[in-house]
Write a structure and sequence with these properties.
single chain; two-stranded antiparallel ribbon; 18 helices; flat; MetI-like fold; mainly alpha
Length: about 450
C-alpha cells in the first residue's frame, strides 16, 4: 500500500470514530442517562484523535527512520569482502542497489553483488511496509476502542479536545521556530567556514568579485576575489529603482481606492492590483528581458544614451511593478483603519478633502504605510529571477542604472547551480552572502516593527 493510502486509511478510521463518538454522545441525552458535559462534536473529535494521533505518530516515525533502518539491515547482511570496501565505493554500491530496488534504473547489466543487494533492499522494504500496515491496523482500532469505552455523560470531552488543540498549535509554532533556528545555524556554520579562509574585511569591503578558485595546484589566475561591495551596490541600486516605482504608485493607488473610488470600481480594481503579486517572477523576468529591456535600449538610442541590453533600470522597473501590491494593499488597509470621526472632524473645521487626506489621514496611517514600504524593500532585495534575466550576472561596481549589474541573490544562484563541492571558498561564499542578506532583511523587519510601535495611535 502506498504512503498516501496509509494516511487515507487513518483518516477514514478517524472519520468513522468521529461519527461513532458523536452518535453515542447524542444517546447520552436520553432520560435517565444524566446531563451531558460537552457537545456531541467534542465527543466525536475525542474519539477521532485517539484513533488518528497514535497511528499517525507511528507512521511518521517509521517514515523518518525507515531509510536508516533498512540501510543498516541491508549492510549487516553483506559479505565481509564487500563490507570492507572503501567508504565511497560501498556508498556507491548501496546507492545503485537502492535505485535498482526502487525501479529507478533497470537491472539488466547490474553486477551480481548489486543485484543481490537490491533484492535484499526490496525484501526489507516489503517487510517494513507490511509491519507498518499491521501496526496501524492494531493501533488505530485500539485507540478508537479505548476512547469509545471511556465515554460517559460526565466525561470532560471538551477539556480533552481543547488540550489536544493547544498541544497541536504549540507544535506548529515550535516547528516554525525550530526551522528558523536551523536556517540561522546552518548559515552561521557554513559562513564561519568561509570566513576561516577569506578575511571578513576583504569580503565586506573588497571592490572586486570574481569567485573563481583553483581546482588544481598548477592552475594560475584562479585564486579568487571575494569583495562583495559590487553585489551590495547592485542590490541597493535595483532596490532603489524598484521602490521609486512601487512606493508612489502603490500609495496613490491606495489613496484613490480608499478615499475616492466608487465601491463597484474598488471591488474590481483592488483584486486586479493584488493579482500582480500572484504572477510568477519568471514571467516578470521574461517581460523585463523581452519587452522592457529592448524598449529602454531603443529609447536610449533615440536620446543618444548607451543603454546595455541587460541593465539595472530594466530590472528595477519591472521589479517595482511586481511589488506594487505589497505597498498598495498594506497602505489601503492602514488608511481604511483610520476612524471616520477624524475625517469628519477635519471636514467640519473647513478643510478640503485633499487637505484632510494629507494632514489627517496619512499621518494617522503612517505606521501601516511605513511597514508596507519596508516589507516591499525586503521583497525587492530578495528577488532573484528578474535580476538574473534582466540585469545580468556581471559584478559591476557602478551607480549608473543603464549598465549591467548583479545582486546578492543572483550570485547565490550562480554559486550553487550545478554540481558543486561544499568545501571550496567559491561555494561557501554563497552562505556568507546569504547571511548578509538575512541580516539586512531582519534589520528591515525590526525597523518596520519599531516604526509601527513608535508612531502607532490608539483611538477610542
Amino acid at each position: 500500500m502506498p504512503i498516501s493510502g496509509l494516511f487515507l486509511l487513518i483518516g477514514g478510521l478517524a472519520a468513522l470514530g468521529y461519527l461513532a463518538g458523536r452518535r453515542r454522545a447524542f444517546a447520552f441525552a436520553t432520560p435517565g442517562r444524566g446531563a451531558r458535559h460537552s457537545l456531541p462534536g467534542h465527543y466525536g473529535v475525542h474519539v477521532a484523535l485517539w484513533c488518528a494521533v497514535p497511528a499517525g505518530a507511528i507512521a511518521a516515525a517509521w517514515l523518518l527512520a525507515e531509510p536508516r533502518v533498512i540501510d543498516a539491515l541491508a549492510a549487516a547482511g553483506l559479505p565481509d569482502a564487500i563490507r570492507n570496501l572503501p567508504a565511497d565505493r560501498l556508498a556507491l554500491m548501496m546507492e545503485k542497489a537502492r535505485n535498482l530496488a526502487a525501479g529507478v534504473v533497470q537491472g539488466g547489466d547490474a553486477e551480481p553483488a548489486v543485484a543481490a543487494l537490491a533484492a535484499r533492499f526490496a525484501r526489507l522494504d516489503e517487510i517494513g511496509r507490511t509491519a507498518l500496515i499491521v501496526s496501524l491496523g492494531v493501533v488505530a482500532p485500539a485507540g478508537l476502542f479505548h476512547a469509545w469505552r471511556h465515554m460517559a455523560p460526565d466525561f470532560r470531552a471538551r477539556v480533552s479536545v481543547e488540550r489536544a488543540m493547544r498541544v497541536g498549535l504549540f507544535a506548529c509554532a515550535a516547528v516554525a521556530v525550530i526551522t528558523t533556528l536551523g536556517i540561522v545555524l546552518s548559515l552561521l556554520f557554513e559562513a564561519a567556514r568561509f570566513f576561516a579562509a577569506v578575511s571578513p574585511d576583504d569580503f565586506l569591503f573588497g571592490l572586486a568579485w570574481s569567485p573563481q578558485t583553483a581546482i588544481r595546484a598548477d592552475q594560475i589566475a584562479a585564486s579568487g576575489s571575494f569583495g562583495a561591495v559590487p553585489l551590495f551596490v547592485g542590490t541597493t541600486l535595483i532596490a532603489l529603482i524598484a521602490m521609486a516605482v512601487a512606493t508612489p504608485i502603490g500609495l496613490f493607488a491606495a489613496i484613490y481606492m480608499t478615499e475616492y473610488a466608487p465601491k463597484r470600481l474598488r471591488a474590481m480594481a483592488k483584486p486586479a492590483i493584488e493579482m500582480l503579486a500572484g504572477i510568477p517572477t519568471v514571467v516578470y523576468g521574461f517581460f523585463a528581458a523581452l519587452t522592457v529591456a529592448p524598449a529602454l535600449r531603443a529609447l536610449g538610442a533615440v536620446l543618444g544614451l548607451d543603454v546595455a541590453s541587460e541593465s539595472a533600470l530594466a530590472a528595477g522597473l519591472v521589479m517595482g511593478i511586481m511589488i506594487i501590491p505589497f505597498v498598495s494593499s498594506l497602505a489601503d488597509d492602514a488608511i481604511a483603519a483610520v476612524p471616520r470621526s477624524l475625517r469628519e472632524g477635519s471636514l467640519a473645521l473647513g478643510a478640503t478633502r485633499s487637505e484632510t487626506i494629507r494632514e489627517v489621514v496619512l499621518p494617522a496611517a503612517l505606521p501601516g504605510i511605513a511597514g508596507g514600504v519596508l516589507l516591499a524593500v525586503s521583497r525587492a532585495i530578495g528577488e532573484t529571477m528578474i535580476v538574473v534575466m534582466a540585469a545580468g550576472m556581471t559584478a559591476n561596481l557602478t551607480a549608473n542604472p543603464l549598465e549591467a549589474v548583479t545582486t546578492v541573490t543572483a550570485q547565490i544562484v550562480a554559486l550553487l547551480t550545478g554540481d558543486q563541492a561544499f568545501d571550496s571558498s567559491k561555494t561557501l561564499s554563497a552562505f556568507a552572502l546569504a547571511l548578509v542578506l538575512f541580516a539586512v532583511t531582519l534589520a528591515l523587519n525590526f525597523a518596520a516593527m519599531a516604526i509601527v510601535r513608535r508612531f502607532r495611535e490608539r483611538y477610542d
